[in-house]
Design brief:
The chain is an alpha+beta fold. The chain has five helices and six strands. It has a four-stranded antiparallel β-sheet with strand order 3-2-5-4, with helices on both faces. Strands 1-6 form a two-stranded antiparallel ribbon. Helix 1 packs antiparallel against helix 5. The longest helix has 46 residues.
Length: 202
């Protein structure tokens, strides 16, 4: 009777240890992938392959004088993933890359000095020396320096979050499968032992 109690206690401890190991593997995997992706991200930022979120603002700050004095503004003067429009002081459109349906909104934001848009980035207003106003609509987001990658990965931060979730799910699937196989083997041994005991009793 005493031996049977000891086996039950040992069995409970073993199962508890197995579950604890399973949880530790999941938590360890989550931390591992977080550290790996963070390391890769920091290395790419250090190498200049990922532009900081305020890159467009820094670009426009440096280009402010050029945008005021240039005879004509071109797309090459603009930061990546931004659009611009040049207006007369009366609000009439001259030229630029702002889509037609957004031009009126851009001018209204200039008149109200509102730099924030509704989920479409920010505005920068530049009053030019030619009686014109240049309005730039830009994003605050981490971008790839490479133009091709920037096309396919418009938001590096969002991509990293999605990649982390995918890697963690794959890790969870592998660990769960290994854990399930281990438990099946243990249960199979327990069933065999139970059958042997039952046969002896009978």
């Amino acid at each position: 009777m005493e031996m049977r109690r000891k086996r039950k206690v040992m069995g409970k401890r073993t199962i508890a240890n197995v579950f604890l190991r399973y949880v530790c593997l999941l938590a360890g995997g989550a931390l591992l992938w977080l550290l790996v992706l963070s390391g890769v991200f920091l290395a790419l930022v250090e190498a200049g392959e990922i532009l900081p979120a305020n890159y467009a603002e820094l670009w426009l700050n440096e280009a402010a004088e050029e945008l005021k004095e240039a005879p004509e503004i071109t797309e090459e003067m603009m930061p990546p993933r931004s659009v611009f429009g040049v207006f007369r002081r009366d609000g009439s459109w001259l030229y630029g890359t702002i889509p037609g349906e957004e031009r009126k909104t851009a001018w209204e934001h200039y008149e109200k000095s509102m730099i924030y848009t509704q989920g479409q980035g920010y505005y920068r207003f530049v009053e030019r020396d030619f009686g014109e106003v240049c309005i730039v609509n830009y994003e605050i987001a981490m971008l790839c320096r490479n133009a091709f990658l920037r096309t396919w990965l418009p938001r590096v931060d969002v991509f990293l979050v999605i990649l982390y979730a995918v890697l963690f799910l794959l890790h969870t699937a592998v660990v769960s499968r290994s854990f399930g196989r281990y438990m099946r083997n243990k249960l199979s041994l327990l069933n065999e032992t139970a059958d042997e005991i039952r046969n002896r009793i009978m």
